[in-house]
């Protein structure tokens, strides 16, 4: 169950022994890989893996909320995922719709603030409506920020930001000399969100897959062989322990 605690003391009591509350990541990003393989290993159709993946995502969101993580960003559908079989893409779109319809009230109760990052205007209309309503209904919630990346691509996000700034310069509203990192960041889907401290990728693959290319510049990366639908409390604790052992220098020296 998701719980939002007004006192840090209460939240502290929920944190597993061995984790240091001072060194918790503020923002975790996840690449939820291995749904298809999870299903195939059980002789099930791939789509069953995506269904089980939703449960793993709910578990992860709930634990992150309980343990005081401020933001969770999940890669649900990339700009490249349209190349999957037509039936699988269709299933994923209706799965997103069903999950939003089914879970919105619980998310509201748990004070989750949900946002969707990506080019949303090409998504099925019903899904766009549900996204707009979920975004609006949870906008003022002060609990964990839950960012769901749908039709998201890191390169596309950067190209779009460049286009916006170039156009502003072309019409004389922006001096190119003044373009800095803050200017650029303000045009990304993640505008206003802190960069992830920790990226978790499941299924043992060691790549970024066009995810948050700008924002992950200094994130710590934890890769686990576990397939996403199996990702659970123990796996999250291991990822957090791994994170807490890292020395973050951001290019400097200790
Ligand atoms: C990658 O596994 C997973 C996806 C492309 C879909 C992830 C989506 C969910 C878990 C649903 C989330 C729902 C909401 C509403 C946020 P894969 O299919 O690439 O697995 P494989 O590498 O084993 O083939």
Fold-level CATH name of the domain at 24-152 and 194-201 and 218-242: Undecaprenyl pyrophosphate synthetase
CATH class category name of the domain at 24-152 and 194-201 and 218-242: Alpha Beta
Shape: globular
- The helix/strand order is HEHHEHEHEHHEEH
* Total of helices: 8
> Which structural class matches the secondary elements?
alpha/beta
* SS strand fraction: 5-15%
Pick out the low-confidence regions. Answer: 1-7
Number of strands: 6
> In the CATH hierarchy, what is the superfamily of the domain at 24-152 and 194-201 and 218-242?
Decaprenyl diphosphate synthase-like
Ligand species: farnesyl diphosphate
Walkthrough of the structure:
There is one protein chain. This protein is α/β, with parallel strands linked by helices. It has a domain at 24-152 and 194-201 and 218-242: Decaprenyl diphosphate synthase-like (Undecaprenyl pyrophosphate synthetase), CATH 3.40.1180.10. It is built from eight helices and six strands; from the N terminus they run αβααβαβαβααββα. It has helices spanning 8-14, 35-41, 46-66, 86-109, 125-138, 154-170, 181-185, 233-245; strands at 27-31, 71-78, 113-117, 145-152, 198-201, 220-223. A six-stranded parallel sheet has the order 3-4-2-1-5-6, with helices on both faces. Strand 3, helix 5 and strand 4 form a beta-alpha-beta unit. The protein is globular, with a radius of gyration of 19 Å. Bound molecules: farnesyl diphosphate. It holds the Pfam family Prenyltransf. One of its GO terms (molecular function) is ditrans,polycis-polyprenyl diphosphate synthase [(2E,6E)-farnesyl diphosphate specific] activity. Its cofactor is Mg(2+). It is an enzyme of class 2 (transferase).
